[in-house]
Structures are given as C-alpha cells and as structure tokens.
Design brief:
Layout lengths: L3 H4 L3 E5 L4 H12 L3 E6 L8 H4 L7 E4 L5 H11 L3 E4 L6 H6 L1 H18 L7 E5 L25 H24 L3 E6 L2 E3 L9 H11 L3 E2 L6 E6 L1 H15 L8 E3 L7 E3 H14 L7 E2 L18 H7 L7 H17 L3 H14 L1
Parallel strand pairs: 1-2, 1-4, 2-3, 4-5, 5-6, 6-10, 7-9, 8-12
Antiparallel strand pairs: 9-11
Helix pairs in contact: 2-13, 4-6, 6-7, 10-12, 12-13
Length: 356
Amino acid sequence: MLYQNTYKGKRVFLTGDTGFKGSWMAAWLIEMGAEVVGYALPPKTEQDNFVTTKLAQKYKHIDGDIRDYDGLKKAIDGSKADILFHLAAQPLVIASYADPLETYSTNVMGTANVLEAMRKTSIRAAVMITTDKCYQNNEWVYGYRENDRLGGKDPYSNSKACAELVTQSFRDSFFEKEGNCLVASARAGNVIGGGDWADMRIVPDLFRAQRNQTSLTIRNPNATRPWQHVLEPVSGYLKLGAALLAGDQKAATGWNVGPYQNNHTSVRELIDQFQLNLKQRGEGIIDVHYPELLNQPHEANLLKLDISKAIAELDWHPRLDMAGTVEFTAQGYLDEFAGGDIYAKRVAQLKMFCEA
C-alpha cells in the first residue's frame, strides 16, 4: 500500500477524524499500521462515514473541540505523536454565511490552538489542511499557484486564507527557530466520494435524490471546480507528511494537491457524468432542475488549481481522471446503499486506488 513504509508503527494525531476526509484518512492510516489518535467533535449523524465504518472501534478517538485549548493540549501531549494532520474545520461556504463567528473561531483560532499546542512536543512534522478557496479568486482561467495572493470573499474562504497566514506565522516565528518540527499546509480541490452526506453539497444532494428518487435543484450549474475523489488529497497529505518526517525542510511550505486540468469541469457537466454512470449501472437517474435563483450568497464561478509544484518537487501525482473520479464516487455511495461491512468496502476502494 502507498506510503506504508513511512507510516507503519508511527504515532499519528489526527484532528477532524469524524469528518468526511478525516475518516477516510483514519482508515488509510490504520491499514498501514499507524497508531492513530483522533480528536474531533462527535459525528453529526448515524450516516456519517465515521459511524458506518465503525472507526471508533479501530483506534483511539477523543471527542473534543479544537477551540478548547486545554483539552486539545492534553490530548496532543498524551498521544506522544510523531506527526500531526490537522483536518478539523467548519467546511461549508453556505454555513459560513449563517454563522460567521463559528467559522472564524473554528478555522482561525482552532488552527492557532493546534499549532500552539503541538509546540515543544514529540511531534516532528505537521500538515495543516486548508482549501483551494483560500486564494483571492479573480475568476482567472488558469489555476492558482502557491505564491498567488490569499483572500476570499465569503467567511469560509476568508477564514481558510487566515488559517494559511496563521500557519505561516507560526512556522516563521516559532517552528523554524525551535527546529523540532517541520510544518506544511495543503490546499485540495472540491473533494467528493462515498461517505459524504453534508448538507448543501452537490454530490451528497445528488445521491440523496438518487436514493429517494426525488428531484434535484442545482443553484449554480455553470460554476467550474477542481473535482477530485477524496483519496486523491489524502494521498497528497500523506506524501507531504512523509517528506516532512524525512526531514525535507523545503517541504515545509504551502502545497496545492488538486486534480489534473481535465477534472476542472462545471457542476452541470459533473451531474451529467454521474447521470451517465448511474444509467450504465442500471440505476435510476435523477430529475434535475436548473432554475434561475436570485439573491444567492456569493460563491465563485471559476476556480482552478495549479499542481505543477507538487508534481515537480514532491513527485505527487493524481491517480484518477474524471471518469475514474465519478466511478469511485458512485461506487462508494452505492456500497453504502447495499449495506454490509462498509469498512471492508472502503478498504477495497483504497486498495484499488493505490493500484490505479
């Protein structure tokens, strides 16, 4: 399995392990033989990937809030971790409009708490996860590079830009001077895959409609995004973490871990590809509506990532094209609908991904 030689026997502290990406990452780490300690809020529903895969039975999970510095510090100290992956966040644009204070307190002060809590501990490497939306979006037709300006109009995007700046400040002010831990950040694209049931997300909404045979309303069909299966960015985080653990000081910076350019497609095109995939499987397709919705909260129409730096300097490459991304994602949801041992099905997909 990819990266097993690096992580087997390593102690890993993982924030946000009850979330979508965090639960997939926890499974991958477990399968490599890592000793995982997870720290996150409890899962929101019984449908969450953390619950359906019964991850709580497979490693040590601590219910906690990254805004609780004392609880977080105690958990990190007790873990005696070699490496930390910070995935805990308020991850939704629309939710950030509804509660901007929670978004900023979680994504900015929560990140600062993680960085401060891991100083002068056993941790030798840390990967702080943000988002492609951390860039000041000028609706450019080319992908954003790591040295482009950070920004963001909505509270979520802006809070993630702030998290990047907080990470950079801690790296420059403390970690480089103290010399005991290398810290990097990673910016993924729009992540999809089985196990994501968050509200106000296109693919979960599509599969809710497919399962219930109801119609689907799309609010921004022409928006272009860098779509990628969840295992793509997780593989990037693991690759980056391996470089940091190996002492590569040049890796202690910001990185884009998005998809290839042909995975940058519109929402309408993404929906069409899922409809085709479901039809080819003999599954029911969905009645989709694209009404003109007025007075919607601002969301960028065009967003692309440039991953040439990760390819050239980390030797990290995406493994799935758009057809593979849709195939893996659809299979992940249909695996859930079929029931049975969901964890075993996730591991089977993980092994297929590593062999792709």
